[in-house]
Amino acid sequence: MKKKEIFLDFTPLLDITLIILFFFILFSSMEVVDQKEKLDQQNEKIRAELTRKEEQLHDALEIIESEDAGRASNIQAMIDFNRSCNLKLILDMNDSTPSIRILHGDEAVTTLHTTENLTALLSQSLSQSGYSATDTIFCDFILDGSQPGTASTYRSIKKELSQLKHQYPYFYASETDISTGKDE
What b/e readout covers 146-165, taking b as 16+ CB neighbours within 10 angstroms? Predict the structure, then answer.
């Protein structure tokens, strides 16, 4: 028997394999591009949500900080009041024009005449004493009710103090009549 040489040509098989491989790579890259686009869209949504949450967190922190500042101001005002370092308005009914001595602790700040625009002058005195509009301010309004003219002056000063609350919403004034309890 004669041996025949067999010649195998793998070129068509190789061509088919390469074509299949080419389509596999092509479709895989298209799928990767689609997945990348979907992931980019999801990332944008997540970034937008994260930005919104950060803004909410920032707003909440600002509220907390302002609340803490308000509490700190309240505590400091109570400590000052306890140490008698708070603001004192002392009504002097001397001569023809009553006046108000303003003390911050034991230190004299100024003297105001009741015929002047007390609200503006008191506001200016509070600023000079280091108070801001957001501070808690405890004030003692001290008067001697036994002196003539005190009642009408007291009423007008009380109106001025209530107007001052528009500029200083955390301004609190207690009233002390030193004539109460005096021996007659």
Answer: eeeebeebbeebeebbeebe
